[in-house]
Write a structure and sequence with these properties.
With about 140 residues, this protein is an alpha+beta fold. About 35% of the residues lie in helices and about 30% in strands. The strands form two sheets. A three-stranded antiparallel beta sheet has the order 1-2-3, with no helix packed on it. Strand 1 and strand 2 form a beta hairpin.
């Protein structure tokens, strides 16, 4: 276990209207989140976080060999309600990546499965946190 100080991450969520919220980070980035409208729902945002986190890991390494012709990551999960309350199970991450012909594309294709596994096992903070589980504390100020 690392003894380094935590590298704090944070977002602030503000209410725009009933069921519609905007999440903002300290750098000024924002995304609208809602339930039952066209924006991403909180559950979809979690799945998008998993997809984006692992995509960045894999893309950063493989695109050094060849720029992909197509790059898509789909994350699916079953939402269940049981004795543990509402939660997701059977989360599946599927990469659909196509590289051009040639030596660079061959090298990227060969590396792709290894990088997907490495992201899953070590690098992707979002999916690692979900898999390992962590306590979430809610407070009211």
């Amino acid at each position: 276990m690392s003894t380094d100080a935590p590298d704090l991450r944070s977002v602030t969520l503000t209410r725009d209207s009933m069921g519609r919220y905007t999440a903002r980070n300290l750098r000024g980035g924002s995304i609208t989140v809602s339930s039952g409208t066209d924006e991403l729902s909180p559950v979809e945002l979690l799945l998008a976080g998993i997809a984006a986190c692992t995509a960045v890991d894999v893309d950063t390494v493989t695109s050094r060999r060849a720029e992909p012709d197509d790059f898509e990551v789909e994350v699916t999960a079953d939402k269940v309600k049981d004795e543990h309350g509402n939660h997701l199970q059977d989360i599946t991450v599927t990469f659909r990546v196509r590289f051009p012909e040639g030596d660079g594309g061959d090298a990227a294709r060969e590396m792709l499965p290894k990088m997907v596994q490495r992201s899953h096992d070590e690098w992707c903070t979002v999916s690692r946190t979900v898999e390992l589980g962590t306590k979430v504390t809610a407070t009211v100020e």
